[in-house]
Predict the structure.
Amino acid sequence: MSGIVVVGAQWGDEGKGKVTDMLAERADAIVRFQGGNNAGHTIVRDGETWKLHLMPSGILHPGKLCVIGNGVVVDPKVLTDELDELRHRGVETKSLRISANAHLIMPYHMMLDHAGEAKLGKLEIGTTRRGIGPCYADKAARLGIRVQDLLDEKILKKKIVAALDPKRSSLRPYARDPRLDLQAMSEEYLTYGHVLEPYIADTSRLVLQRLDRGDMVVFEGAQGAMLDIDHGTYPFVTSSNPVAGAACIGAGVGPKDIDEVWGVAKAYVTRVGAGPFPTELDGPLAEEMRERGGEYGTTTGRPRRVGWMDLVALRYAARLNSLTSLAITKLDVLAGFDPIRACVRYRGAEGAEFDYFPYHQTVLHHAAGEYVELAGFSEDISACRSESDLPAPARDYLEFVADFVGVPIALVGVGPSRDQVIWTGDGGDTAIRLAA
Ligand code: GDP
Ligand code: IMO
Ligand code: MG
């Protein structure tokens, strides 16, 4: 048995897609366990770029079981479009399975997401406006509509009516929107049901069968620990739990089915949307980092906020997730920055020092990073394939990060393509096996 969870250890967009795709090569099944099409996971292989939103990042490996777990919120339009696009580009999608218990994003969830953000005005969260928050809210309120409901017209209509009723006043600005017409909405969703029916399954059972026979299963997280609704920078978070513990709930397996947890982190930090970001940069340095890293959102195209590596937050993420291995991506982007800074504590209002992640939102909002300066490197490292190929300052930086966080680095990204990676031979059992 080998269950490996891949999670984001920062504010999302760490390169989970690339790491999952690499692990998928050796895995038998790949399972998305939370989030929805707020995610954008990029895979670059053989010069081709794939941007996946709902599809597990194992889909490019033909024949492997790819699961959209019960913890994911599914916009069936986005899913059917993504399936069409993959098939159009020659990808076999027959081995996809969608949990019958996953919740559906409905047109009114997207409207409520827009309306909620508009109402907040300057205080907006900066959501992706994909209806994620309102969909999870309905799930918790037991007004959600699940994938299995697509297969029963009567139930679907009844549930839509029940879900819409308490939302009437919030949806008043959309009262004339044809997407809210019960007949049109149910017809549209029943059509998705017809298309998706062959993929709908009891995915928990399928995954447990694989684990029981000793297969390697990769559980792919979306977003990152700092966007976790419980542990992140609330309320500037997403509406699900991107931390590793949620893999069990969102896939329908038990805690003992997880053997390793890989945390993906960039060699610096980015964040999309509003909320505290203690190591944020601005001015020309930020511009340079954003341009070199191509830091524009995969889902919304928004410029990502950028900053130096935040080791206080990364150590917090390591603890929350029980990380066994780190994957540090985009080290190549730091070439030319000298010195490289790494935040090792926060300084709050009135000079208070924090070497741990402060629990109080007000403290965090006023926290500024304090840094250790490390020597930079100027060489292009995108062709390096072993640690010994790296310039000494790059190796020192990695060592500093691993020591500070207390988690070994299993792999290092030196470019977007799947072969632009260095396996260190360190990390959990799987990392060591794969590096060999
Ligand atoms: P995810 O949401 O965590 O899967 O990450 P995204 O795909 O949203 O963003 C990561 C971006 O960095 C993508 O454009 C990747 O192609 C790219 N990327 C991943 N690893 C590396 C790396 O090691 N170096 C560089 N230069 N780009 C990388
Ligand atoms: P991946 O999986 C980066 C951010 C949004 C916003 C907040 C809430 O590609 O790493 P939501 O639409 O979820 O209600 O928005 O969360 N956010 C992400 N940021 N990467 C993501 O996904 C994100 N998914 C949501 O920008 O700040
Ligand atoms: Mg992304």
The pocket of guanosine-5'-diphosphate (ligand 1) is lined by residues 8, 12-18, 39-42, 44, 294, 298, 329-330, 332-333, 413-416 (CB under 6 Å). Residues 3-100+202-435 form a domain with the Adenylosuccinate Synthetase; Chain A, domain 1 fold (CATH 3.40.440.10). The longest strand covers residues 340-347. The two ends are 20 Å apart (CA to CA).
